[in-house]
Amino acid sequence: MNIPGPAGSLEAWLERPTTPSPGLSRAAVLCHPHPLYGGTMHDGVLDVVAQTLLSAGISCLRFNFRGTGASTGSHSGGPGEREDLGAAIAWVRAELAPQAVWLAGYSFGASVVWDYLVAQDSPSEGIERALLIAPPNGAMSFAPGDPGCPVDAVAGSADHFVDTEALTGLTAVTRHILSGADHFFSADSRTLAQTLTRLITG
């Protein structure tokens, strides 16, 4: 399916849980890794995140950033992708009318989520929670600021793109370090799923 974006249409994929979460209705918007290095909404790590959220009764919208897959436009290096995320959030709110919205991003997608939350010109109010998976703060700039919601950052101790110590300096971020895991969670997808399940349902 396609949803409207600021640079044209965005290819998207909506998944609904078999059993919605009790209490508040929730929907999550998921952001994929770097498109210039093969990242798309069909990424394997993002699959783990989506399946964990769905198992907890949370609807998931994945989408391809501009210039990726069937999404129109061209990669912008961050600012345009932040606008794409804003459009995806607006679509979820209009079409699903959830009582709470979550954000999740893996690698480059985590940086887009963070930038969206702390940017002064982003309408980030109303985001209940964010999950940053392998946020590459050791390779990309993560601007200081208040994200306005609790943020859980999950990263591996063997991830050379993540400065795990610096994660503690980001406002409202709680870090969760998986011993021995690399940036791609190559042999640790089960541990990642277990960690996310604990965070989401605990």
- List the secondary-structure elements in sequence, H or E: EEEHEHEHEEHEH
Could you tell me the mean pLDDT? 95
Strand content: 15-25%
Give the end-to-end Cα distance, rounded to a whole number of Å: 33 Å
Number of domains: 1
Q: Give start-end ranges of low-pLDDT stretches.
A: none
Task: Report on this structure.
- It is a single chain.
- The chain has 202 residues and is an alpha/beta fold.
- The chain has a single domain (2-201), classed as 3-Layer(aba) Sandwich (Rossmann fold), CATH 3.40.50.1820.
- Helices cover 29% and strands 24% of the residues.
- It is built from five helices and eight strands; from the N terminus they run E-E-E-H-E-H-E-H-E-E-H-E-H.
- The protein has an eight-stranded mixed β-sheet with strand order 1-2-4-3-5-6-7-8, sandwiched between helices.
- Helix 1 (44-55) runs parallel beside helix 5 and helix 2 (79-96) packs across helix 3 (108-118).
- The longest helix has 18 residues, at 79-96.
- It starts with a strand and ends with a helix.
- The mean pLDDT is 95.
